[in-house]
Specification:
This protein is mainly alpha-helical. The chain has 5 helices and 2 strands. Helix 2 (about 30-40) runs antiparallel to helix 4. The protein is globular and about 40 Å long. The chain starts with a helix and ends with a helix. Belongs to the IL-15/IL-21 family. It is found in: Secreted.
Length: about 140
């Protein structure tokens, strides 16, 4: 009986240790969303960025997300130059996003109707972050 009790404790321990990872891991973009939350209130980031449309066709999702991450590199460079208060959070977002992009299996072909990043309108930092959040949230559904 004691052995069974100890085994049950181990089973419960492993289930408890594994469950939070499963719940949080349902979306590999969760870390990026946390980073976006950290930087969106920043007052010292003042850049105009190509901002992809949040309502692009599903087949254009990869180039849209890649566009957002290309632009996060612009934010990071700006923060490094101006020593923004959120430089570390921007770096984390860029790093986490690139890791998620590398882990995702994308279609190697992109539809000809998908826009290049530079074809999108330039918007201010706040609008960019709001659109970026919508795109990532859509990807998490």
């Amino acid at each position: 009986f004691c052995l069974l009790k100890n085994e049950m404790r181990l089973v419960i321990f492993f289930l408890c240790a594994y469950a939070p990872k499963t719940a949080a891991g349902h979306c590999k973009w969760a870390e990026v969303l946390k980073d976006l939350e950290q930087i969106k209130a920043s007052k010292d980031i003042d850049v105009s960025l190509y901002t992809a449309n949040t309502d692009e066709d599903k087949e254009c999702q990869e180039p849209v997300i890649r566009c957002f991450f290309l632009e996060t590199k612009v934010i990071l460079q700006e923060c490094l130059i101006k020593k923004c208060s959120k430089t570390q959070d921007v770096f984390n977002m860029w790093k986490n996003g690139n890791a998620s992009l590398e882990n995702k299996k994308w279609n190697s072909t992109t539809s000809a109707k998908c826009k290049e990043c530079e074809e999108y309108e330039e918007k201010n930092f706040t609008e960019f972050i709001q659109s970026f959040e919508k795109v990532i949230q859509k990807e998490c559904k």
